[in-house]
Amino acid sequence: MAAIDARGDDVVLRLEDNERSLMLTVFTDLAALLAEDEDAEGRPDSENWEARLGLVDRPRPEDPALLRLFPDVDPLDEERSAEFRRLTEFDLAQAKAHNVRIIVAGLRRGAAITLSRDEVLAWMKGLNDLRLVLAVRLGIDTEEAQEDKYAHRGDLDESEELTLTLYDFLTWIQDRLTMTLLSEMQGDDDE
C-alpha cells in the first residue's frame, strides 16, 4: 500500500510495483490526451510562435474530458470563450503537460520517490487533472452525481468499478500530499 512521509524539505512517496505501474499507465494516457496537435505545416504548438503568442485560433475541445481541463470561460458567450481559449490555452496546456512529465519521471525513479516542494505541487496539479478526466469518464459532474455513483457502486460494471477505485486511490494520494505539504508549511511558520 502506498505511503507518504515528510523527510526534511522533501516528501517521499512509496508505491507498490502494481500501484506504480498503474499510475505510469494512466499518466502516460493523460500525456497522450494532452499531446500537442500539429499545425498545417506539421509543427507542434511548442515550435509554433503564432500559437505561443495566442495568434492562432484554438478549437473548442470535442472530448468532454479535454473540455473539463480547458473549459469555456463563459459557456453563454462562444465568442468570448473562443478569445479566451486563443489567448490562454497554449500556456495552460504546456503547464499541464509539464506537470505530467514531472509525475512520469518520478514514477520511473522506482518504488520510493523523493519529491521536492515544487515537484509535490506539480504532482498535486497533475493528480487533480487526472481526477477531473476520470470524473468526466465516470459521469461525475456534481456532488450529487458523485454521491449517487458511490451509493450504487455495486451496480457498476467492472470497468467503472476499476475506474472509481483508481479515482479513490488518486484522491487519497492527492490528499496525503496536500496534508504533508500543509503540515510542512505550518512547521515553517513555527520557526
From TrEMBL:
UniProt-listed InterPro entries: AosR
Superkingdom to which the source organism belongs: Bacteria
Protein name: DUF2017 domain-containing protein
